[in-house]
Amino acid sequence: xxxxxxxxxxxxxxxxxxxxxxxxxxxxxxxxxxxxxxxxxxxxxxxxxxxxxxxxxxxxxxxxxxxxxxxxxxxxxxxxxxxxxxxxxxxxxxxxxxxxxxxxxxxxxxxxxxxxxxxxxxxxxxxxxxxxxxxxxxxxxxxxxxxxxxxxxxxxxxxxxxxxxxxxxxxxxxxxx
Length: 177
Known about the structure:
Layout: H1 3-24, H2 34-46, H3 50-66, H4 76-94, H5 101-130, H6 139-175
Helix pairs in contact: 1-2, 1-3, 2-3, 2-4, 2-5, 2-6, 3-4, 4-5, 5-6
């Protein structure tokens, strides 16, 4: 990866981490993971190789883990690379087919990251999560709470990336002239 591309990824991941941190301070029932949106934007803009996309996902996973208030932060180290690889693969397939490729790609990458996070977290801390009074041992109560959070975050991230893609891609093209 070129040093310019590394700088772009670093800046975008930092922006995502800062936004996630400040959104978490609001203590709302839903804290969107903006890191996902910004690593998707980075992957879409610089079109890295597959191992570079995996690296972006790993760095995003570590950042997410460090500032997470979720039920099992280490799950981010696996879920974010999964999301990054989904973003990489889908954008490669869709970029020439539709102008909404950034939207669709980010939406599906966020779903992949969110649902893989839930699966990993449930393997490690599921018993303690389900035994809390909030869920009363009912896995469907957990699903009823978690699925809307992931879907709303996916919609939000997709809108953010599509909105930012056009001006940022123009800026990058201008720098190549």
